[in-house]
Amino acid sequence: MPKYRKMLMLTNPALDAIFPLLSSQSRTTICAWCADCAERDILPIYEKYLPGDTRGRSLLALAREHPTKELKAAVRQAANSVWLTAKEQNHEPAAQTAARAIGQAASAINTITHAVGIMLYGALSIAYDALGKDAPWAELEQYAAAECEKMLAALQAVAVADEPNPSNINWGC
Fold this sequence. Notes:
By secondary structure, the chain is an all-alpha fold. The protein has one domain (13-158). It is built from eight helices and no strands.
């Protein structure tokens, strides 16, 4: 069985632009953007390849609730279940990367740096779904880069100018 790439590399303009923008936004704005992108763009792929599996949808619904200590623990547990789904999908990279993207998007409630996972995994999931798992990597990467631009535009559309409570993320890179 071929080994498929599971995420994009950090080498595209949309990814370069997302880091400072995420750092300038509140945790609330970031988590809402993650959930919006995941529900709109990634969940349909997850459900296409995993019909009847409600863990992705349930996780995103849970992540939208007000973040309490108990909720954060529940999100962590539910995200682990979705990530296990990803491990089981080695034969289908669109499903695997969709599960990873949903898990990362929801987990931003706990670890804000996970927010970038919606682009790293999600854009690639969309590319695998559109082009097929055997498409050349260069084509997948190009298609995913266009999806990253859309996700960046979605964040720019909801970004709060002069956010009073920015996350000030330390990306460590």
